[in-house]
Design goal:
By secondary structure, the chain is α+β, with helices and mostly antiparallel strands. The protein has two domains: about 5-135, Alpha-Beta Complex (Aspartate Aminotransferase, domain 1); about 140-200, no CATH class. Helices cover about 45% and strands about 15% of the residues. The protein is built from nine helices and five strands; from the N terminus they run αααβββββαααααα. It has a five-stranded antiparallel sheet.
């Protein structure tokens, strides 16, 4: 069992995903006790600890198995191929309606983690077996994601923007389509499109 110095810093400084980095208000500190408990369970499962996407990630033979993360209202342990897991206890959640691979367990107190420690360990074991089996998740194609009418109208009025959008990698295109479509109001969709146009013209993805 070997810890990563970068993950040690994660617990000291925070994740760095927002302006609260290196402050007492960072959500990593809010859920520090819970995250450390999840970290220990992951390490006891024999996984290799790394820092990826600014969060503790646990791998085997270079393959991502689980990740732990802090949010405002809770912390989570995420399973990269969660959709393939049996979830016998019915405790896995989907990150969103467009997710087709990962699932997670949400925690709001340390008592729940202690209560589910054996179950979490068994879930990690199953996740490792799934990865080692070589089974693949078939990702959705860009064509499977609907194009909002607001985006279609923007394409019609700005051909250069349309060309720039379709020059992006499929992964970047999907991320933008999910982002636009998740807005309920048409005005919000239009605003999101306008705010991301510069990044798209520069060939960048959502968080680049």
């Amino acid at each position: 069992m070997q810890t990563s110095p970068l993950v040690d810093l994660f617990f000291i400084d925070g994740c760095g995903r927002c302006k609260l980095y290196k402050t007492a208000a960072c959500k990593v500190h809010t859920w520090k006790l819970e995250l450390q408990a999840l970290r220990q369970i992951a390490l006891n499962s024999g996984l290799t600890e790394e820092l990826k996407w600014k969060q503790p990630c646990y791998t085997i033979n270079g393959k991502n198995i689980i990740i732990i993360s802090a949010f405002k209202e809770s912390c989570i342990i995420g399973f990269m191929k969660g959709v393939l897991m049996k979830d016998t206890e019915r405790i896995l959640e989907m990150p969103g309606e467009n997710s087709n691979s990962s699932k997670f367990i949400r925690f709001k107190n340390i008592d729940r983690i202690i209560e589910l420690e054996n179950t979490i360990t068994e879930y990690i074991k199953e996740a490792i077996e799934i990865e080692q089996s070589g089974v693949k998740i078939i990702s959705k194609k860009v064509e499977d994601y609907p194009i909002p009418e607001e985006l279609n109208q923007e394409f019609k009025s700005d051909i250069a923007f349309k060309n720039a959008f379709y020059s992006l990698t499929p992964g970047r295109q999907k991320a933008y389509l999910i982002y636009y479509s998740s807005a309920k109001q048409s005005d919000t969709k239009i605003s999101r499109i306008q705010k991301t146009k510069e990044a798209i013209f520069n060939g960048k993805g959502m968080n680049e």
